[in-house]
């Protein structure tokens, strides 16, 4: 992979993070239902990429990088309890992709 490709991918990733930070109306469960990943998945992938390079990064630090603030604060402000409909849709999505 060229340096240019890496730079473009990094820019696209930063844009995705900014988009997700402004779209607080889109819940993680909705992302999981439709896309099969959520903000927490991105944090896990970020942490795994760091680990692959010998960098130790805790779960909370990785989530803060993705959410733009401590996860507990983001959750308190933006994440209501999942509705029964969301939970049912999530279960159905899990069955389809298992």
Automatic annotation (TrEMBL):
SUPFAM superfamilies found in the cross-reference section: SMc04008-like
Domain SMc04008-like: 26-91
InterPro entries named in the record: SMc04008-like_domain, SMc04008-like_sf
Coiled-coil region: none
The organism's place on the tree of life at top rank: Bacteria
Pfam families linked: DUF1244
Protein name: SMc04008-like domain-containing protein
UniProt source species: Dokdonella fugitiva
Organism taxonomic ancestry: Bacteria, Pseudomonadati, Pseudomonadota, Gammaproteobacteria, Lysobacterales
């Amino acid at each position: 992979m060229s340096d240019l490709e890496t730079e473009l991918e990094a820019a696209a990733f930063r844009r995705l993070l900014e988009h997700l930070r402004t779209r607080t109306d889109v819940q993680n469960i909705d992302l999981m239902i439709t896309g099969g990943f959520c903000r927490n998945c991105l944090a896990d992938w970020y942490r795994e990429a760091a680990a692959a390079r010998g960098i130790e990064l805790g779960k909370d630090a990785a989530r803060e990088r993705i959410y733009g603030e401590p996860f507990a604060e983001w959750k308190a402000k933006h994440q209501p309890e999942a509705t029964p409909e969301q939970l049912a849709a999530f279960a159905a999505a899990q069955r389809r992709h298992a």
